[in-house]
């Protein structure tokens, strides 16, 4: 679509003196600026766009059309679970009965909100096989940090101060070692076997009385179920460490198996992935943390409990980790998760895992004739190709990802995990119809054929997007955040 608003900054549409509002004249004699210390008063006028209301509306509407989202097209971004977020979740989280609450209201005036908290805490504990959950953390990485802080507090309270190391598989999501480092742990890397799972033989010599715990993602970032978990958990426990489960992508496990039953002690869940809150672009999120029996007192506060008189806040006395967020975490996301849980119900939630696994395996099997599948066999909710099968064309994973944009599909996650050079990680989620999956499969096959018949065209894709190939490094090193920067 092309019109005069398209692709232009609002500053470029500005006309001096044009406004979108009319305010009554200042009826007070004084100018409030007189009362500000002169050092704080601007020396020159701020540069702001001067536009009429209709221009503002068109500017933002055109900008929103440049966006790609789950609501506009298929979004197979591996490790991100870009599933459909039912609109009723948003409607419920926007109810004024919830949005108008103040976080400092006494508990007896907010029983409904506390009931939502309590029910989500309990539901997650049941789904994950854990004893207790906190809803305080704001994101997956924040959940990891909180979970690792509980592990640290657990060891410290036992007077076991030697445990300064955390074991992390080399296939782990980048947030795992980052969170462990932020928590003050030293990271010990454990290798993967050729089939992409944790190498137990490599793990054994790493275990000693300095190990505070081990982080695992299951299914791991390759979408493979870690079959050796019982043995790994027994080994880590025998050396005195705790097992941490990165449950950011709990999707394939829903209704099938529970981390608590596998021997994990602490875990987090991303409500903004598995439990259906729109995410991407930095928020909003929620990364609840669950613990097994015996570790409840190390969770952060506040926490919601229930007795005969209703719901109330507790802190865990002297043993508590303290607080890791403002008030109670991201309530609007918790509300969406609750709406999602109730919409599906206990029976239907059990379909999420099997359907997400079925969709991923369907796409994988259809495409392995054209793309290199380094790890054969059943995957869980996602899988990884190592680029095109035919390596002679010089067309890379990046090129394929860019070409997909021309066909109206979001690119998969690329160049992660780091175990393969041309990684292309695809996660269809349980929501997509077979028709959408078939179109996606056909398109990826077309791109593979184009890579042979016209490699230069694929290498110069995308051809139909508002901008072509951006300089990723420059965007990080020299970001222009304001119009003034843009002018320079
Ligand atoms: C997304 C993800 C995280 C991090 O979650 P954020 O909410 O982005 O901080 C951690 N681990 C895995 C496996 C993930 O997919």
Nutshell version of this structure?
With 488 residues, the chain is an alpha/beta fold.
| Tally of contiguous helical segments | 15
Would you tell me the structural class of the helices and strands?
A: alpha/beta
Bound molecules: pyridoxal-5'-phosphate
The span between the termini is 29 Å
Rg, alpha carbons? 26 Å
Give the strand tally. 12
Written account of the structure:
Helix content is 35%, strand content 11%. The protein has two domains: 87-349, Type I PLP-dependent aspartate aminotransferase-like (Major domain) (Aspartate Aminotransferase, domain 2), CATH 3.40.640.10; 351-474, Aspartate Aminotransferase, domain 1 (Alpha-Beta Complex), CATH 3.90.1150. The protein has 488 residues and is an alpha/beta fold. It is globular, with a radius of gyration of 26 Å. It has 15 helices and twelve strands. The protein binds pyridoxal-5'-phosphate.
Summary tags:
single chain; 488 residues; alpha/beta; Aspartate Aminotransferase, domain 2; Aspartate Aminotransferase, domain 1; 2 domains; seven-stranded mixed beta sheet; three-stranded antiparallel beta sheet; 12 strands; 35% helix; globular; binds pyridoxal-5'-phosphate
What's the SSE blueprint?
Elements (H helix, E strand, L loop, with lengths): L52 H13 L21 H7 L2 H4 L11 H18 L3 E3 L5 H18 L7 E5 L5 H8 L3 E5 L9 H4 L7 E7 L11 H10 L3 E6 L11 H4 L3 E4 L19 E3 L11 E5 L2 E5 L16 H37 L15 E4 L10 H10 L6 E2 L8 E4 L7 H20 L1 H5 L12 H6 L5 H5 L1
Helix pairs in contact: 2-10, 4-10, 5-6, 10-12
The structure holds pyridoxal-5'-phosphate.
């Amino acid at each position: 679509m092309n019109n005069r608003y398209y692709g232009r900054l609002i500053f470029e549409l500005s006309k001096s003196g044009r406004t979108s509002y009319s305010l009554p004249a200042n009826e007070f004699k004084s100018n409030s600026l007189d009362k500000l210390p002169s050092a704080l008063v601007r020396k020159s006028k701020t540069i702001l766009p001067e536009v009429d209301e209709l221009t503002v509306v068109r500017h933002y509407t055109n900008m929103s059309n440049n966006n790609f989202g789950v609501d506009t097209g298929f979004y197979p971004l591996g490790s991100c679970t870009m599933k459909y977020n039912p609109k009723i979740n948003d409607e419920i989280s926007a109810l004024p009965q919830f949005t108008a609450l103040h976080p400092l209201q006494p508990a007896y005036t907010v029983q409904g909100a506390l009931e939502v908290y309590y029910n989500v805490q309990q539901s997650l504990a049941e789904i994950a096989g854990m004893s207790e959950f906190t809803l305080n953390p704001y994101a997956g990485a924040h959940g990891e940090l909180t979970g690792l802080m509980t592990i640290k507090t657990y060891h410290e309270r036992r007077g076991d101060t030697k445990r300064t190391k955390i074991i992390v598989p080399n296939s782990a999501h980048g947030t795992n070692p980052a969170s462990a480092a932020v928590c003050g742990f030293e990271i010990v890397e454990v290798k993967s076997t050729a089939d992409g799972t944790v190498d137990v033989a490599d793990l054994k010599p790493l275990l000693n009385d300095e190990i505070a715990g081990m982080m695992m993602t299951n299914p791991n970032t390759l979408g493979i179920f870690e079959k050796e978990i019982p043995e790994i958990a027994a080994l880590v426990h025998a050396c005195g460490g705790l097992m941490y489960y990165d449950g950011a992508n709990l999707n394939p496990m829903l209704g099938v198996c529970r981390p608590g039953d596998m021997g994990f002690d602490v875990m987090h869940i991303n409500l903004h992935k598995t439990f259906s809150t729109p995410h991407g672009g930095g928020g909003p999120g929620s990364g609840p943390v669950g613990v097994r029996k015996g570790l409840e007192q190390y969770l952060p506060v506040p926490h919601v409990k229930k007795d005969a008189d209703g719901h109330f806040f507790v802190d865990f006395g002297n043993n508590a980790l303290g607080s890791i967020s403002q008030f109670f975490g991201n309530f609007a996301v918790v509300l969406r998760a609750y709406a999602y849980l109730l919409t599906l119900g206990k029976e239907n939630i059990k379909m999420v895992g099997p359907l997400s696994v079925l969709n991923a395996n369907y796409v994988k099997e259809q495409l392995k004739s054209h793309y290199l599948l380094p790890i054969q066999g059943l995957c869980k909710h996602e899988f990884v190709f190592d680029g095109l099968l035919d390596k002679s064309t010089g067309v890379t994973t990046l090129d394929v990802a860019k070409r997909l944009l021309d066909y109206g599909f979001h690119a998969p996650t690329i160049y992660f995990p780091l175990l393969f050079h041309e990684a292309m990680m695809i996660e269809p989620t349980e929501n997509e119809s077979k028709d959408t999956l078939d179109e996606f499969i056909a398109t990826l096959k077309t791109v593979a054929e184009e890579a042979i018949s016209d490699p230069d065209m694929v290498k110069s894709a995308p051809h139909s997007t508002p901008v072509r190939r951006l300089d990723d490094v420059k965007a990080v090193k020299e970001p222009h955040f304001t119009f003034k920067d843009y002018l320079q």
